[in-house]
Amino acid sequence: MKACTNPLSAVTAAFALAATAALVVLGGCASTGYHFSQLVGDRYFKTNIDTYPVSINQVDGRSYLGRAPVLVDPGLRSIVVQGPPTVVNLQETRTIELEVKPCTRYYLVALKTNRLDNDFTVQVDFEEPVAGCTPPPPK
């Protein structure tokens, strides 16, 4: 007598092997942990009429124009932001130093004394923990 072979069991075994390999690979990625902080140029509190969104142009000399949120490592960071357009200058920028904490999202805004003022200062509107983030291991 011949032994019966089921072609479906071969497909099932191949699928199980592929799924196991995928889980091993993904498990390796998960063990490294996500440990970046985030910079966002939007207002967190919408009711303050003297704050405006900003564009984050550079962090530590590296260009991030057009990216949101900007992912940065914890530590002291030099951040160049472009404020709201004014009558005098459409591309007014400011540089701030910010001590970035691990796994924290920062909402940066331009603060003006009134809508017609050309001058602005950059401030942190709000900071919150980043979900799913694990702090980096100590060095």
Plain-language structure description:
- It is elongated, with a radius of gyration of 24 Å.
- The chain is built from 1 helix and 9 strands, in the order αβββββββββ.
- Helix content is 19%, strand content 36%.
Structural topology:
Layout: H1 7-32, E1 37-40, E2 51-53, E3 55-59, E4 62-63, E5 70-72, E6 75-82, E7 93-100, E8 104-111, E9 121-129
Parallel strand pairs: 1-8
Antiparallel strand pairs: 1-5, 2-8, 3-4, 3-6, 6-7, 8-9
Sum this structure up briefly.
The protein is an alpha+beta fold. It is built from one helix and nine strands, in the order αβββββββββ.
Instruction: Please work out how many helical segments DSSP would assign.
Output: 1
Number of E-type strands: 9
* Derived structural class: alpha+beta
User: pLDDT under 50 segments (min length 5)?
Assistant: 21-31
Mean pLDDT: 81
Instruction: Categorize the overall geometry.
Output: elongated
Rg calc: 24 Å
- Percent strand equals 35-45%
Specify the biggest β-sheet.
5 strands, mixed
The portion of residues assigned to helices is 10-25%
User: In whole angstroms, how far apart are the ends?
Assistant: 67 Å
List SSEs in N-to-C order.
Answer: HEEEEEEEEE
